[in-house]
From TrEMBL, chain A:
Keyword Secreted: no
Organism: Bradyrhizobium nanningense
PROSITE patterns (alphabetical): SBP_BACTERIAL_5 (PS01040)
This protein's UniProt keywords: Signal
GO-annotated molecular function: peptide transmembrane transporter activity
Protein name per the record: ABC transporter substrate-binding protein
UniProtKB/TrEMBL annotation, chain B:
Keywords noted in UniProt: Cell membrane, Membrane, Transmembrane, Transmembrane helix, Transport
Protein localization: Cell membrane
A GO molecular function held by the record: dipeptide transmembrane transporter activity
PROSITE patterns xref list: ABC_TM1
Gene Ontology cellular-component annotations: plasma membrane
UniProt-listed Pfam families: BPD_transp_1, BPD_transp_1_N
Membrane topology category: Multi-pass membrane protein
Family as reported in the entry's similarity comment: Belongs to the binding-protein-dependent transport system permease family.
Residues that span the membrane, as ranges: 9-30, 101-124, 136-156, 176-196, 255-275, 281-307
UniProt source species: Bradyrhizobium nanningense
Domain ABC transmembrane type-1: from-to ranges: 95-304
Protein name as annotated: Peptide ABC transporter
Main location: membrane
From TrEMBL, chain C:
Superkingdom of the source species: Bacteria
Signal peptide: none
Keyword Cell membrane among UniProt keywords: yes
Taxonomic lineage: Bacteria, Pseudomonadati, Pseudomonadota, Alphaproteobacteria, Hyphomicrobiales
Organism expressing this protein natively: Bradyrhizobium nanningense
Protein name: ABC transporter permease
Length: 514, 316, 290
């Protein structure tokens, strides 16, 4: 083993999204009880599970996927990669190849045996250019997957990945393992009749209403799961979602900090438990630096300096939102002494706008939701105070990605989600030439740092790279960050064993009722 | 009569055709290239071009309309690109909810509206009448999104009488199903009864002026009997119309009520289709709903003709 | 938009019972309220009000005080100023949109009712098409295409109101066209234009105007529903509907934020109704069935 590898191993724990749970989470030592049924109130309606059809899973789909499917690895309470369908793993010295030993004797719900071949078929199907899967974007760094024997799986990467087992833990479109027999026989209907190896089996699903998941009696992890039944329901309206929790129709609901009044009410209610998870990443915004007035760095800097984040947090979330000064956040292992954040300075901002000389007028894309409108109005107000005129352009969620990819915007909201490693998102968002490099900004130094950070195994070195990247982006103000990611779920106090919400996923597959 | 039915049926055809054209045009107006939405980050120019070709998006608009219409006429409304469901499957899953919601809302609306209307008509012009007509109108000014959440707080959170959100099919749990529908139906009914009440009230006031009512009074019939039998009956025509119009309107779904009470109805399906640019679903469902409206109107016309023979022979 | 439908037949109300009634105190109170609201809405920019979009982010949902007479809203904006500017928006949309319906729908209905035949079939048919299309989907799609602004919103609501006005005008025309004075004018060789403008229009206008007042009320409410769905007036502009929608999120913390605009809406709609009813009773157009 090389020195780099040794260093990486030594630092492995901090590699993985460091997490801080506000409330004490259920300890495994507690007595688990089997039986019972719970209802989960989600924000969105689930479209389906076939990656070829839906492309990317949303948070609501993640919850269902966590129950129906298994992944190779999972994150334990400490944030480290732990075995699931893979029991052990090793890597090549250059981190370009990872070999996983798979669990034996696991079967999909339809009886198809789970093995390396089944996994490879999942992967190849997503990767096949003929399938034009949106999901392929997230596995561009994997050249191929090999199945040398029935229970051995080899990932061949295009770039070194020192952290692969932790990166592939999310129950996403790419990592959930589907039964190849099922998608082949069901065709178009597979999307809504998913088959995995997970602890729960899809029993019935009424579109827009409920998805009933029943305990998988032959689950490989003996003794689990505990609950007999999980019911997932989309409850789109935040107020009635909370009312459903209060009145007992739902046992756990998805929430976010914009619903601060209800979160605070739940904190005071002894019958309810508030689960929070402070993830890495942030709510971010991109300037289109190719168009006026954002082709001038002074305007961009001025707008960033005009934002008073603590005050904004008060205004929109009763102070629950945690201000962000870099794209990584406190939940990430990247800790910077100096991230180069621009200070909040109204006078300086005014001066910069004045220096620019021309009137600063622009449109910002905002999602047509109460939350989008609120944030939009607050930013508008900050910018008005330094002499910049922002007009809110409300668009529906579906329009934002297509506007962003075609660069038809001046300023757009975006999100850096909670992942175990910053590389996938930072590289996609800032490397020149990437379709997601929304700012249209290219800088050789930035590219060099991004390239270097992804192939370096030494954690100290990578941290330095990422901090330098943050300083560069903050100085050029091509993107800016408002708040760090904090994820919320509110549940009945009877629900126990709820794990940390990595990536904001409400995973109830391991919970039980007291 | 047969002649009349055939004439009315034929008149429906151009309306349906125009509805299909409008549906198609409006769906095509939506900004955001469908191929871009579907491909997302995979939207390389080659992929976009290929997908546009596959979906026929590179064809001129009129050609796309005709080919869509051709498929529709063969009973093929298409499949959602996102869920893989056919339009008919999607509608079949949702329509029972919308139908039930609409029927219950109408029922409650009539339950409140008819007695109030009769009471008001009986003493038209007095303080009670003026108060009720006024407040009925003011009820219209209460937005359903406010009424809904107030009802939830009162009946679900405070009193625990009724569930806040959710749905079970009637076939699974008849009683539970009704419980889930009470609050959403009541929310809608609170906006429906003023209309029913005002229309019926004015109709009955007119009827009460008629000679035969005076005759009935002269014959010494009880006031209640006059009101309910002699005056209410002729007004049933009006009720049929109003109810018909409401039913047709609610068919298109009631997005706000469906979202707040988490009912899986047509409204949420349609708006979801707009947000995800699921044009196949959007066009197909709007066409079905609009056809439903036209058909309900047709049925109302027929009922009218049955109830009032004068109409069959052309008006005036 | 849909509720317009409900109220059409309302216009058939012959209210002979009320005909003898005097205008009464209520009428004057209602008119007074409308006059005040209208004056405030028109004069809003010149009144000594605080800026309705300026936020004091640390003074959210502040209680009534001498600085903020009606407190502040969820983002620390002066509630009184927002209510008055909200009235301005709501009344602008609420008055202009029905005018579009009144003008276009009224003209179509008048012509259809007078000329009958193919033209009438065409007009009635196209209105059926418009009615059959789910109004919310129409509003969503057109807003997405045209962009969100007060003129666009007004236009959409106006178009959605056309069928209802058309029905009222056509029904009134149908009955009037059989009256003696029209037949007499025809016999005297008056031109179509003359009969339409001189004989029919003045008589059709009355029921249309009464219906217009209903339209105003309904439009204000519908604008609120659209605001709730993010399709109403663009923020940070206030409208009563959007204020109720925003206030709904803090019902138990600061219920006044939802109930103040709701009360404003309630009283105004009530006042429009009272005035409309009284005026109708006075003029008593006595139309036939629609």
């Amino acid at each position: 083993m090389t020195k780099i590898a040794a260093a990486a191993r030594k630092h492995a724990p901090i590699f993985l999204a460091a997490v801080f749970a506000v409330l004490p989470l259920a300890e495994p030592a507690q007595a688990q009880k089997s039986g019972g049924s719970i209802t989960v109130g989600q924000e969105l309606e689930i479209a389906g599970f076939d990656p070829l059809k839906v492309g990317v899973y949303d948070t609501s789909t993640f919850t269902a996927a966590a129950a129906i499917f298994d992944t190779l690895t999972t994150l334990d309470e400490k944030g480290e990669a732990a075995p699931k369908l893979a029991v052990s793993w090793t890597h090549s010295d250059d981190y370009m190849s990872w070999t996983f030993k798979l669990r034996e004797g696991v079967k999909f719900h339809d009886g198809t045996p789970f093995n390396a071949q089944a996994f490879k078929e999942n992967f190849d199907r997503q990767k096949d250019p003929a399938n034009k899967c949106r999901c392929a974007f997230y596995i561009t760094n994997v050249k191929e997957v090999l199945a040398p024997d029935e229970y051995t799986l080899v990932y061949k990467l295009t770039d070194p990945s020192v952290n692969l087992p932790a990166v592939i833990t999310i129950q996403s479109q790419n990592n959930a393992i589907h039964s190849p027999t099922a998608w082949k026989t069901k065709g178009d209907d597979y999307n809504r009749n998913p088959v995995g190896t997970g602890p729960y089996v899809l029993k019935s699903w009424t579109a827009g209403d409920r998805m009933v998941l029943e305990k998988n009696p032959s689950y490989w992890d003996k003794g689990r799961p505990y609950l007999d039944r999980i019911i997932l329901k989309p409850l789109p309206d935040a107020q009635s979602r909370f009312a459903s929790l209060q009145s007992g129709e739902a046992d756990i609901i998805w929430d976010d900090e914009n619903d601060a009044d209800n979160i605070m009410k739940a904190q005071k209610d002894s019958k309810l438990t508030v689960h929070t998870y402070k993830g890495s990443g942030a709510q971010v915004y991109a300037f289109n630096t190719k168009v006026a007035p954002f082709d001038d760095v002074r305007v961009r800097q001025a707008l960033v300096m005009a934002i008073d984040r603590p005050k904004m947090s008060q205004a929109i979330t009763n102070g629950l939102s945690r201000p962000a000064s870099n794209p990584y956040g406190d939940g990430s292992w990247v800790k910077c002494k100096d991230d180069g954040a621009l200070p909040f300075d109204v006078e300086k901002a005014k001066a910069l706008i004045k220096e620019y000389g021309k009137p600063v007028e622009f449109k910002m894309l905002v999602t047509a939701t109460p939350r989008g409108r609120m944030v939009g109005q607050v930013l508008q107000q900050f910018w008005k105070r330094v002499g910049a005129n922002m007009e809110i352009e409300q668009v529906d969620q579906a329009t934002i990605p297509s506007r962003a990819f075609t660069r038809q915007f001046q300023m757009t909201p975006w999100r850096i989600v909670d992942l175990a490693d910053p590389d996938p998102q930072m590289y996609a968002n800032f490397r020149s030439g990437s379709p997601l490099a929304l700012a249209g900004f290219s800088n050789p130094e930035l590219d060099r740092l991004l390239d270097h950070a992804r192939v370096t195994a030494d954690i100290g070195q990578r941290t330095e790279d990422y901090c330098a990247i943050s300083r560069l982006i903050n100085k050029e103000a091509i993107w800016f960050w408002t708040f760090q990611n904090t994820y919320y779920a509110l549940s009945s106090a009877k629900l126990k064993g709820f794990p940390k919400m990595y990536n904001g996923v409400i995973d109830v597959s391991r919970t039980w009722l007291e | 009569m047969l002649n009349f039915v055939v004439r009315r049926l034929l008149a429906m055809l151009p309306v349906l055709l125009a509805v299909s054209l409008l549906t198609f045009l409006i769906a095509s107006l939506l900004p955001g290239d469908l191929a871009l939405v579907i491909l997302g980050d995979q939207a390389t120019p080659e992929n976009v071009a290929a997908l546009r070709r596959d979906m026929g998006l590179d064809q001129p608009l009129w050609w796309r309309y005709l080919s869509w219409l051709g498929h529709v006429l063969q009973g093929d409304l298409g499949r959602s690109y996102r869920t893989g469901q056919t339009v008919l499957q999607a509608v079949a899953e949702r329509i029972p909810v919308s139908l039930q919601l609409m029927l219950m809302a109408e029922f409650i609306g009539l339950l409140i509206g008819v007695p109030v209307a009769i009471a008001c008509a009986a003493r038209a012009g007095d303080a009670f009448d003026r108060f009720m007509t006024g407040s009925a109108f003011a009820m219209l000014s209460m937005p359903s999104f406010l009424v809904a959440i107030l009802l939830i707080y009162l009946f679900a959170v405070e009193l625990h009488w009724l569930p806040a959100t959710g749905y079970v099919p009637f076939t699974e749990e008849p009683l539970g199903n009704l419980r889930f529908f009470v609050l959403p139906a009541l929310t809608l009914a609170l906006a429906e009864w003023p209309g029913i009440m005002r229309v019926l009230r004015s109709d009955m006031i007119a009827t009460l002026q008629e000679d035969y009512i005076a005759l009935a009074k002269a014959k010494g019939l009880k006031p209640a009997r006059i009101l309910f039998v002699h005056a209410l009956k002729p007004s049933s025509l009006t009720l049929v119309t109003v109810t018909g119009i409401n039913i047709g309107r609610l068919l298109g779904g009631t997005l706000i009520v469906e979202s707040i009470f988490a009912l899986p109805g047509i409204g949420r399906l349609l708006v979801g289709a707009i947000y995800t640019r699921d044009l196949v679903i959007l066009q197909g469902v709007v066409l079905l709903v609009a056809s439903g409206f036209v058909i309900v109107n047709f049925i109302v016309d027929m009922l009218y003709a049955v109830l009032d023979p004068r109409i069959r022979h052309g008006h005036a | 938009m849909a509720t317009l439908e409900l109220s059409i037949r309302d216009e058939a109300t012959p209210t002979p019972v009320r005909r003898k009634r005097k205008l009464g105190l209520l009428f004057w109170i209602a008119s007074g309220w409308l006059a005040i609201i209208l004056a405030l809405a028109i004069l809003a920019p010149v009144l000594p009000l605080q800026n309705p979009v300026d936020m004091d982010m640390l003074e959210r949902r502040a209680a009534f005080s001498s600085e903020h007479w009606l407190g502040t809203d969820g983002l620390g904006r002066d509630e009184l100023a927002r209510l008055i500017f909200g009235a301005r928006t709501s009344l602008t949309v609420g008055l202009i949109a029905p005018m579009i319906g009144l003008t276009l729908g009224g003209a179509l209905g008048l012509l259809a009712g007078y000329f009958r035949g193919r033209f009438e079939t065409l007009v009635v048919g196209s209105m059926d098409v418009l009615l059959a299309f789910p109004p919310l989907i129409f509003a969503l799609a057109v807003t997405a295409y045209l962009g969100q602004s007060v003129p666009n919103l007004t236009l959409i609501l106006g178009v959605l109101g056309i069928p209802a006005f058309m029905r009222v005008a056509r029904a009134a025309t149908l009955t009037l066209a059989r009256r003696e004075f029209v037949i007499a004018a025809e016999a005297l060789g008056a031109s179509h234009a003359r009969i339409l403008l001189r004989e029919l229009l003045p008589n059709v206008v009355l029921p249309l105007l009464a219906f217009f007042l209903l339209g105003v009320a309904v439009t204000i409410v519908v604008e609120g529903a659209l605001s709730f769905l993010g399709l109403g007036v663009p923020p940070p502009m206030a409208s009563w509907g959007s204020m109720i929608g925003e206030g709904r999120d803090s019902l138990d913390v600061a219920p006044r934020l939802a109930f103040l605009p709701a009360a404003g809406l309630f009283v105004t709609v009530l006042a429009f109704n009272l005035v409309g009813d009284t005026l109708r009773a006075l003029t008593d157009p006595r139309q036939g069935a629609l």
